[in-house]
Amino acid sequence: PAEIRRLIKELEKAQGRGTTMVSVYVPGKQAQLNRMTKKISEEYGIASNIKSKETMQLVRDALRSIGQVLKGTKSIGKNGLALFCGYDVARGKQVSFELSPPKPIRSPIYSCGPNFEVRPLTKMCNSDPQNAIGFAVIGGEGTLFAVLGDSGVPETVKTTSVRLPKKQSKGGQSAPPSNVSVFNARKAYVTKTVEELNSLFFDHKVNKTKYKRFVFAGPGPLKDKVAEHPKLLSAIKNKVLKVISVAYAFEAGLKEAIRKSESLLHDSQGFWKKQLLQKLFNQIAADTNCYTLGSTDTFEALESGCAETLLLAEDGKYKTVICEKSLVDIAEGKISSETEEKSVQTSVVFHTASQRDLRAKLKEIEEDKSLVVREITSFVDWAWENAEKEHGVKLVLLGCKTPLGVQFAKGFGGIAALTRYPFHSSAGYENTAQDDVEDSSSSSSDDDIADIFG
Predict the structure, then answer these.
(1) What sign does the CA torsion over 417, 419, 424, 427 have?
(2) φ/ψ of residue 42, rounded to 5
(3) Is 44 exposed, middle or buried (0-12, 13-18, 19+ CB in 10 A)?
(4) If you average pLDDT over every residue of the chain, what do you get?
């Protein structure tokens, strides 16, 4: 999932010293939770043997934080629990992360070192073949075997080519033998394709299919002969979703087959996210105002409670500048109308800007004497921590490998929201389609936009 991959990137960025970065993976059983709680308690005592007092204190702080989470966990999910805590030298503070892994944790892991142990998470995030769809595009010139996983981007497994003789319509006495040779050649090709399917889509070591379901496609009748062939393993045959007629073979036929089978793939994560993007594009095309584009309008919709679903490109370059705003009128030395207290009070103010415009935004903030910059962070990171917790908004991170994902990132800046009701910006509509593109002209052309709304 994109959310987990994003978190892995954050975990990899964190840098500690010595053994100050503690990682814990707990399998989804109560007994394992109890054992790990006891293990952390023991490690806390062992940490007293660390020679460096500073390192010892940092390790103990991390272990104490993880121990408190474990003790406060009354029940554990079937996938288990992953905890990370340590002092990040770059940030100059302790950081901690807690998550339920996307797949079950098989065995407990306790690790302490200069970096967080993320390899188990990375392995879990690799596309699970058992959730993927196997495609076979069968044409008269060859067959393309491919797999469609959660990323929504098909991967070619193998491509075969063949030269089948054409049927004869003329030739007198030579026609019947020629037609027999055509029949035999097509029969041999179908049999060979079935054998390839049995080899590529079935794991004979564990005696089960490699992928969850299958789709056969092609421009002619050969696909039907393959699907009905007696040598096709029943395990594969029973999982064939549909046999689809397409106009082309190979890659073009694969794209058409995926498009025509989307209605059958409604439970896949890639299809669900694509539907969200398509919903956004439809709202834009219909000009319903039930959406926002760009950082300024989206942030305003978040704070006003209008936003319902926040859509962000996984590799978005927007930054959030977190400031403290003094409630004292610095220029006149008077307390503002927002408070009647004599003591100086502050409130938190957020500003967003693309990487390209960050310097100008910081200069603007500097000129405002009532603002003090407290932290600069990635907008995606800020949204990850605050969107749902503080604003009740569902956050969806979108990959940028699919055509729609690329259009969203480059054409619309990679930041948008679907709103609960029509949204009207206080500052008016701001087109930020090119904010996320640094020193390039990669904004969408009119033809690109027409393709999206197609």
Answers:
(1) negative
(2) -65, -40
(3) middle
(4) 79
- For residues 234 and 239, what is the distance between their CA atoms, to the nearest angstrom? 8
What is the structure's pLDDT at 401?
A: 67
**The three-state (H, E, C) secondary structure of the chain, written as one string:** CHHHHHHHHHHHHCCCCCCCEEEEEECCCHHHHHHHHHHHHHHHHHHHHCCCHHHHHHHHHHHHHHHHHHHHCCCCCCCCEEEEEEEECCCCEEEEEEECCCCCCCCCEEEEECCCCCHHHHHHHCCCHHHCEEEEEEECCEEEEEEECCCCCEEEEEEEECCCCCCCCCCHHHHHHHHHHHHHHHHHHHHHHHHHHHHHCEECCCCEECCCEEEEEECCCHHHHHHCCCCCCHHHHCCEEEEEECCCCHHHHHHHHHHHCHHHCCCCHHHHHHHHHHHHHHHHHHCCCCEEECHHHHHHHHHHCCEEEEEEECCCCCEEEEEEEECEECCCCEECCCCCCCCCCEEEEEEEECCCCHHHHHHHHHHCCCEEEEEEEEHHHHHHHHHHHHHCCEEEEECCCCHHHHHHHHHCCCEEEEECCCCCCCCCCCCCCCCCCCCCCCCCCHHHHHHHHC
Cα 417 to Cα 7, 220, 437, distances in angstroms: 21, 43, 19
Q: Full-prediction pTM beyond 0.90?
A: no
Q: What is the 3-state secondary structure (H, E, C) of 237-293?
A: HCCEEEEEECCCCHHHHHHHHHHHCHHHCCCCHHHHHHHHHHHHHHHHHHCCCCEEE
Q: pLDDT for 421-435, tens place per residue?
A: 999 887 554 444 444
- What residues pair up with 144 in beta bridges, in sequence order? 137, 159
Q: What are the tens digits of pLDDT across the range 243-286?
A: 999 999 899 999 899 888 876 665 555 667 777 888 888 898 89
> What are the tokens at 321?
């500048």
Separation of alpha carbons 187 and 222, rounded Å: 9
What is the predicted pLDDT for the residue at 1? 57
**Alpha-carbon torsion, ordered 51, 21, 15, 19, to 10 deg:** 30
CA geometry: angle 302, 5, 78, nearest 5 deg: 95
Residue 265 is predicted with a pLDDT of 65
